[in-house]
Amino acid sequence: MAEATSAESDSATAKRRSDAPSLKGERREGTLVLTVAGDWLSRTVGALEKDLEKTAEANLGSSITMDLSAVGHVDTAGAFVLERLRRQLSQSRGEIALDGLAERNRPLFQAVGQAMDREPPSAKPAKSNRIVAALAGLGEGMVGLKDELVNGLNLIGGAMYGAGRRLSGRTQLRPAAIFNQIDQMGVRAVPIIILITFLVGGIIAQQGAFQLRRFGGEVYAVNLVGILVLREIGVLLTAIMIAGRSSSAICAEIGSMKMREEIDALHVIGLNPIGVLVFPRLVALTIALPLLTFIANLAALAGGALTLYIYSGISFANFAQGLQNSIDLFTIFSGLIKAPFMAIVIGLVAANEGLKVGGSAESLGLRVTSAVVKSIFLVIVMDGLFAIFYASVGL
Fold this sequence. Notes:
Distance between the termini: 114 Å
Number of helices: 14
Helix content: over 70%
Radius of gyration: 39 Å
Number of strands: 4
Strand order of the largest sheet: 1-2-3-4
Shape: elongated
Largest sheet: 4 strands, mixed
Strand content: 5-15%
Order of helices and strands: HEEHEHEHHHHHHHHHHH
Structural class: alpha/beta
């Protein structure tokens, strides 16, 4: 009984060995014939990978034929290996035919050959052309600008839609979310705003008095400080600091929610992420930035008054009198009017960049950096546009 079992095992092993794929070469009438035999299947062709590479690289002569009459079973992997070998040999020796291919395997080899023909050719490095590269970069920049504008308009539309639903009573108004954002972006930013603008106001006063002293007009440093702070420096410094402080926070908050798929969860439960996340932050920024600008103006004027008192001996009463003679209501409100527009720009850029965050921490860092840089850039551009507008209307 044991001998019979052993004989059956030896017979099965011998059969498996006979079915193993093989590749042999022999000369027939000056032609090298590559005899392919056995079963060429995905689980067996790996054993011949090195032999196939050596065959493709060897100098086999100019006349080669591949004989597939002894091939048993073949699948897609086996057909691909044989077709690849034939093409590698054909590159330097001309077309090599597959002889003895069984009719049942012919459609498989045809399909594999067609699939290999559809492989894209290796891309050749394009010749560098500075003009074409510049135009391509300009085109990419314009497309990116268009996408940014569309996303910004989408955020504005979504925020207005959410505001309309809240005012009409179809959606519950959540003032707690707005007041929380005002506390985060406005109240907690007051100390740093006061410190920075106080120092900048003192620096402007000192430099103005130093330069005007040589002309005997040191007293006009009061006018310089008042007009420059109220029209430009107060709102610009405040907006830049809020862009760096709050823009990064908004982008990081929304971006982290995007990474954790919390925004997708809002969609699932039927809530509009723009109305829930962006709208309260836009409203809070629009309220907080003008108030912070007013505080910044007071701090900068206080810094200028203290500096002129110490540096030039101009009393606080004379400083107040000089301000009264040099500024009017338009000078005060010309800076405050810019604040809401800058706040909307900062909020939109931060929210837009936050919604672009991918699934990695690297993407979050890049988007936060982009949000801060774009916000500061657009704030400065907007300040310049307001300056051009005021000059064009003679104000």
